């Protein structure tokens, strides 16, 4: 009957192994007490004299049924809370041993007076007192859960407040929990009775503090493990990563501003050169207007383009000034001389020179070369080589001068 009642009140599958062991020993003690009470009734003893035995039987059996709830309610009253189940089992074993010893001394078939069961009854009461919290309450946990909720990551569906659940599963000063829908259960209470949003990832949000520190918000996802307090090394690495990201973002912002400034200056220089090129063309047009009419002294279009380009290239060289040079000192080694030649100032001057040339003449010079090929059937190898070398360090200035000289010589014989 006791097993039947236990099956109705608390199924075996819902109990962890430690609680099952405690329940089994409670049943043994209850059965022994009940059997002794029935023996006394069959022997003709009065019901009044047997009532304490039956009361102890009922109290012991009920304590076994409600052991999981009693364990939760007493919480952390015992200093060695993790050994509470073991202490209860040891106490019940001692009580059983006393009963067997008493029966052995007085004979198995000899009914002892009812007051012989007094020590057993007092022992059962002592065990209950031990479990309910007769000992001094241990020091409060340093881990404090302020709030916690469990719901779908993307919103929608049901949201559950699981603050009480997390507080109840704190062990000492820490907490470890596998985040699954079916794990939010303590005893017969399910804090997440149904899936908040079927088919969607859930997340657990909580705010906690440790050792009186400031509240810390955290978020973990379904199927993850929640460990509180968080590892200080993990927190340190997280902070370091955040600082590195911030520094990288600031550095990128500075570089972007610098690039924008350089691009703006380059565009200004390019615009200035275009303005000067247009002014040169206007000046040439003005000069041509003062010359005899084209019908008397015709000037071919391609020759005009080449002459104009040579003029603008010459002006371009004058705007950039003389190329920086390094004089070789007497007795200086090749390595020392080349080290001075590679000074950053010299390379920066060449970089600006080649960049400005590419922006202003990168297309126009190639177009003149193609017109020479198409209209005059001229493919000048030195011109091709100079065009290729003009954007290379350190031959850029020399290549521009060669382009001017070659085009000027070609223009003399062009009638196209």
What is the fold's blueprint, element by element?
Layout: H1 2-9, H2 17-42, H3 47-65, H4 67-74, H5 84-106, H6 118-132, E1 143-152, E2 160-161, H7 163-168, E3 175-178, E4 185-186, E5 189-190, E6 202-210, E7 216-221, E8 225-228, H8 232-290, H9 301-320, H10 334-341, H11 344-361, H12 364-375, H13 381-389, H14 396-412
Antiparallel strand pairs: 1-2, 1-6, 3-8, 4-5, 6-7
Helix pairs in contact: 2-3, 2-5, 5-6, 8-9, 8-11, 9-12, 9-14, 13-14
* SSE class: alpha+beta
| SSE sequence, one letter per element | HHHHHHEEHEEEEEEHHHHHHH
Order of strands across the main sheet: 2-1-6-7
Question: What's the N-to-C terminus distance?
Answer: 121 Å
Description:
With 416 residues, the chain is an alpha+beta fold. It has 3 domains: 2-132, no CATH class; 143-230, no CATH class; 271-412. Helix content is 60%, strand content 9%. The protein has helices spanning 2-9, 17-42, 47-65, 67-74, 84-106, 118-132, 163-168, 232-290, 301-320, 334-341, 344-361, 364-375, 381-389, 396-412; strands at residues 143-152, 160-161, 175-178, 185-186, 189-190, 202-210, 216-221, 225-228. A 4-stranded antiparallel sheet has the order 2-1-6-7. The chain has a two-stranded antiparallel sheet with strand order 3-8. Helix 2 (17-42) runs antiparallel to helix 3, helix 9 runs antiparallel to helix 12 (364-375) and helix 9 (301-320) packs antiparallel against helix 14.
